Amino acid sequence: MYTEKVMEHFMNPHNMGEIENADGIGEVGNAKCGDIMKMFLKIENGIIIDCKFKTYGCASAIATSSVATDMVKGLAIEDAVKLSNKAVVDALGGLPAHKIHCSVLAEQAIKAAISDYYVKQGIDPTPIVGEQHCDCDHCSDCCGI
Predict the structure, then answer these.
(1) Of 51, 102, 134, 136, which one is the catalytic site residue?
(2) Which of 43, 51, 94, 139 has its CA 20 to 30 A from that of 105?
(3) CB neighbours of 57 closer than 8 A, spacing ≥ 6?
(4) Is-catalytic flag, 33?
(5) 76-133 pLDDT, tens per residue?
């Protein structure tokens, strides 16, 4: 059911925890499945120098949170905001179709944290981060998007 990479990130998640005085915090959830993800960003000179997460959810939710934090650490904000749920799924070697919504939450949590960072800087995040949307086929069923 799960790839070896998913199980690795679930059993030994990377970057789990909280960043005190985070520059950006994003929290998203899925009411249907109960998953909740909270991402914390530390940003210096436009670069994400640290990213941590707290996730309440299934193995896929924890694995997607873990791999997403790995993927954005060290990136410029402009690059991190381009993180897609497809890239998260690919980095994990795939997810079962009914768990794709977890990758969507990871993407949304990162974008929400980046949006929070921009708001704290007095900048409207919408032109930079854009409207959050979902590009998986069944999200109207699982995510309500």
Answers:
(1) 102
(2) 43
(3) 33, 34, 35, 36, 37, 102
(4) yes
(5) 999 999 999 999 999 999 988 888 888 889 999 999 999 999 999 999 998 888 775 5
